[in-house]
Amino acid sequence: MTGLEDLYREIILDHYRSPRNRGELPVPPAHRVEGFNPLCGDEVVLYVELEEGTLSDIRIAGQGCSISQSSASLMSAAVKGKSISEVRGLIRTFKAMMSIHEARLGDGSERASSNGASSDEAAVDPEALGELAALQGVVKFPVRIKCATLSWNALAQGLDEMGTG
Amino acid sequence: MGSLTPKADFPLLSQRVHGRRIVYLDSASSSQRPQAVLDAMDDYYRTTHANVHRGVYAIAEEADRRYEAARMAVGSFIGAPDPEHEVIFTKNTTEAINLVASSWGRYRLHAGDAVLLTDMDHHSNIVPWLTLAEERSLELRWLGVDEQYRLDLSELDHQLDGVKLVACTAMSNVLGTIPPLAHIAERAHSAGALVLADAAQLVPHLPTDIGSLGCDFLAFSAHKMLGPTGIGVLWARRALLEEMPPFLGGGGMIRDVRHDGFSANVLPWKFEAGTPPIAEAVGLGAAVGYLESTGMEAVRKHEMNLTSYALDTLSERFGEDLRIFGPPDVEERGGVISFAYRDVHPHDMAQVLDQSGVCVRAGHHCTKPLMRRLGVSATARASLYLYNDESDVEALAEGMAEADTLFG
Predict the structure, then answer these.
(1) Predicted complex ipTM
(2) pTM score of the predicted model
(3) Could you tell me which residues are beta bridge partners of residue B236?
């Protein structure tokens, strides 16, 4: 089961069993955004509150597998209290980490939007990711990448909808 | 009991994954092919290929002969009274149902007409009707699912009032439930409605006889019955097919084309525009031959025995930790076993099983209305076929127990 231990790291299982920032926030002032994975039926609902250029609060609802749920939980802990530009940077870094493998697999759409595998790899700074680096093992399981990126895509969409640059 | 036919007949099953023998339990999604099917398609391409219905030279005539022989074999396999005219080759079940919705539906259904659907159907037998309902302002009604995972037919006569078509699965791809189609068809016909059966899960696994089913349209796919992808079948009563307008327009489906219009070809070619999947039809014919020589009664009996063994083995081993979505009585279900194990998400369960070489499906299985009814977002699903045996079921049980080490 060596392969599976790469996927299901202890931090991931911990965030799956005890998800952080679980719940809802009143809308408004919070903004609500949903993410769906139409292949497996997983769904994530984010409640995001901004205050003076900072992501002041976030809550997560919805249901899904250990990877989508732990990734959402880890994301919530990582972005809370950060400036919008820091959050945007984190989204970029996380998605770059997740796209390394896709680029290597020759996924045309991913490659078109990045500069290729080598520059992606250079762009990922594990220091900047902290606990999120635990999700790195997901790239060895290409089908699960969409689970890991579900909440991150929803957050990026939410920030766009809220009109943040 | 062992497998019904030798695993060695199926080249893919001798593959190894993650250093383990492959345990293929996803035939409800797509089955594997025996060597006989691969050989028939290979031989066709090597010796015979030419376009059908066009050439006068020898290999073109042979291509025609093999293509039409496949149609007759398929028709005979399902007890079609007039296979020469009533068996239409499509891309798959989905296209067959879309053909009916688009051709018969647009021709026959008008604002205010009702169509009766079910909560246990696949999206392929729901979405074409949702689309048509919006276009034609149709009323959609739904047969529910009861506590025993059967179709709730308690209000059937009442629900049939004013209905023009009942679109119903012949066997659920999630629950395994086999609805009483003959009874539904009898009540529907009394109410003046036609019946379309999505038989994608039925035809591969049970002896199928159009006459006893009583339906008016029947759709299924080759790739779930040991045949290739890319070809499916629509069977319909000849009188209905005669009155229906063509579905796709193009070569092969016309008798004459002028500046101001066209006249359609005769059946079955009226509904087969463009170069058809010829090698795939040949492969489907070979799959039908393999199933017939095995015997569909034997297939059904094997799957009932193995399903019973699987339900007992899993229930005894996992007890309260296991929830099975489907009827307990193997008489009224096929070998599709959807389950939830403790609170392990189906996606995680399928990932864990993969490490043991066990292939199962995890997800909503294209049945979101049913998932809502069951109160889950997804299930894990193991499905059985003639090449499965007790050792496959045991590998499933062993693999499931591995989930405890991660999620215990």
Answers:
(1) 0.80
(2) 0.91
(3) B217
